[in-house]
Amino acid sequence: MKSPAHETSSTSSIEDVSLAQTSTNPPKTFRELGVIDSLCEACDSLGYSTPTPIQAHCIPVALQGRDLIGLAETGSGKTAAFTIPLLQALMDNPQQYHSLILAPTRELAQQISQTVKALGAFISVRCALLIGGVDMIPQAIALAKKPHVIVATPGRLLDHLENTKGFSLRHLKYLVLDEADRLLDLDFGPILDKLLRLLPSRKTYLFSATISSKVESLQRASLSNPAKISVSTKNQTATNLLQSYLFIPHKFKDIYLVHLLNELAGQMGILFTRTIMETQRLALLLRNLGFPAIPIHGQLSQSARLGSLNKFRTRSRTLLIATDVAARGLDIPAVDFVINCDLPQDSKTYIHRVGRTARAGKSGRAFSVVTQYDVEVWLRIESALGKKVDEHKPEKDEVMIFADRVHDAQRIAISALREQNQDGKGARSKGGSRHRKRGRDEMDQEEA
């Protein structure tokens, strides 16, 4: 017998709500979208002055009681686009275990939980966060308090459904699948199938950056007659983003980077590298030179990764050194600049990286370091952008003033990295291979 989750219509019943069909005068306030006063106050308190495009188009449709497919990237305001309708529906029909929001990674789930609590502060919303890598007992205690909203990664949610006494979602009213493409990329498919069979008939919102065949199968299995709203940013960067590149010899890369960071001192920035090793090396080098840098990558423990993010958000560290995978899904609004220390291999990743700054109407800067080995890749990125990017040309004499200090810091960083690697090899020989098959509790942790 099929569960209600699978008794849905095919993709032919999806209604495309194109942005062209809507008013040419976009709404200037959340009140115009039909949002109740208490939630409008919460939006004001959080600095959400004007709805973003995804919010302006999703919220009215969701408030009509429709299932929803939202196609939008991280940083578009999609979290509020699905949270506001959930909370408004909760106000109309208060109950425990009202809404469930599923996210692919622990960090993203934590960010969503913070948004739910902030938007729900004026209406006393109780929210529980269920993620892997931490003790289940405090989470079980939070569930025993009958929260209105649960934010979870799929593996940990299933653990609680199977093992936490008295916890059931049989009266659930709303389900959100956030970053559905990544949920499926991280092999959560079988767990999602199991969860959907356990859940009752409900309203469902699916948000994704892309629609793959896997996502199409998921929407067929979980949504009923949905409206699809797309806010495309393909090959686009924000108009308030100033992009530039530095063309430099590879051997002087660190020196030019330090000079650039000296010019940007005091501002919040994310520096992207291609590998975990380079993330570690660069963080050590910059700290040796007095820069408040902190790394984030998939080999850090869960507490260390959350610690890095919290230090960056609270500005106790103003430089976050990150790999692409570790930074995916992070929504940090106050980033002043991005530096591509290592060029990405494609324009999609470039756009994703530089999109970490110049958000919500604020201006931002993006710098890309291009060496003699990167010219072909850079030309491909420029071609995809459809424009020539300006070159940032500092005076070489001013840059090379930093050479001796940078060379000393390089030696210290490499020595420290060797010591770390030796310690890591010893720990791995005791603890077994890192490349074992990940258990359910580890599936919500990015690997790089």
Automatic annotation (TrEMBL):
<comment type="similarity">
    <text>Belongs to the DEAD box helicase family. DDX47/RRP3 subfamily.</text>
</comment>
<feature type="domain" description="Helicase ATP-binding">
    <location>
        <begin position="59"/>
        <end position="229"/>
    </location>
</feature>
<feature type="domain" description="DEAD-box RNA helicase Q">
    <location>
        <begin position="28"/>
        <end position="56"/>
    </location>
</feature>
<dbReference type="GO" id="GO:0042254">
    <property type="term" value="P:ribosome biogenesis"/>
</dbReference>
<dbReference type="InterPro" id="IPR001650">
    <property type="entry name" value="Helicase_C-like"/>
</dbReference>
<dbReference type="InterPro" id="IPR044765">
    <property type="entry name" value="DDX47/Rrp3_DEADc"/>
</dbReference>
<dbReference type="GO" id="GO:0010467">
    <property type="term" value="P:gene expression"/>
</dbReference>
<protein>
    <recommendedName>
        <fullName>ATP-dependent rRNA helicase RRP3</fullName>
        <ecNumber>3.6.4.13</ecNumber>
    </recommendedName>
</protein>
<feature type="short sequence motif" description="Q motif">
    <location>
        <begin position="28"/>
        <end position="56"/>
    </location>
</feature>
<dbReference type="Pfam" id="PF00271">
    <property type="entry name" value="Helicase_C"/>
</dbReference>
<keyword id="KW-0539">Nucleus</keyword>
<dbReference type="InterPro" id="IPR000629">
    <property type="entry name" value="RNA-helicase_DEAD-box_CS"/>
</dbReference>
<keyword id="KW-0378">Hydrolase</keyword>
<keyword id="KW-0067">ATP-binding</keyword>
<feature type="region of interest" description="Disordered">
    <location>
        <begin position="416"/>
        <end position="448"/>
    </location>
</feature>
<dbReference type="GO" id="GO:0005524">
    <property type="term" value="F:ATP binding"/>
</dbReference>
<feature type="region of interest" description="Disordered">
    <location>
        <begin position="1"/>
        <end position="25"/>
    </location>
</feature>
<keyword id="KW-0690">Ribosome biogenesis</keyword>
<dbReference type="GO" id="GO:0003724">
    <property type="term" value="F:RNA helicase activity"/>
</dbReference>
<dbReference type="InterPro" id="IPR014014">
    <property type="entry name" value="RNA_helicase_DEAD_Q_motif"/>
</dbReference>
<dbReference type="Pfam" id="PF00270">
    <property type="entry name" value="DEAD"/>
</dbReference>
<dbReference type="GO" id="GO:0016787">
    <property type="term" value="F:hydrolase activity"/>
</dbReference>
<comment type="function">
    <text>ATP-dependent rRNA helicase required for pre-ribosomal RNA processing. Involved in the maturation of the 35S-pre-rRNA and to its cleavage to mature 18S rRNA.</text>
</comment>
<keyword id="KW-0347">Helicase</keyword>
<dbReference type="GO" id="GO:0005634">
    <property type="term" value="C:nucleus"/>
</dbReference>
<keyword id="KW-0694">RNA-binding</keyword>
<feature type="compositionally biased region" description="Basic residues">
    <location>
        <begin position="427"/>
        <end position="438"/>
    </location>
</feature>
<dbReference type="GO" id="GO:0003723">
    <property type="term" value="F:RNA binding"/>
</dbReference>
<keyword id="KW-0547">Nucleotide-binding</keyword>
<dbReference type="InterPro" id="IPR014001">
    <property type="entry name" value="Helicase_ATP-bd"/>
</dbReference>
<dbReference type="InterPro" id="IPR027417">
    <property type="entry name" value="P-loop_NTPase"/>
</dbReference>
<dbReference type="GO" id="GO:0005829">
    <property type="term" value="C:cytosol"/>
</dbReference>
<feature type="domain" description="Helicase C-terminal">
    <location>
        <begin position="256"/>
        <end position="400"/>
    </location>
</feature>
<dbReference type="InterPro" id="IPR011545">
    <property type="entry name" value="DEAD/DEAH_box_helicase_dom"/>
</dbReference>
<dbReference type="InterPro" id="IPR050079">
    <property type="entry name" value="DEAD_box_RNA_helicase"/>
</dbReference>
<comment type="subunit">
    <text>Interacts with the SSU processome.</text>
</comment>
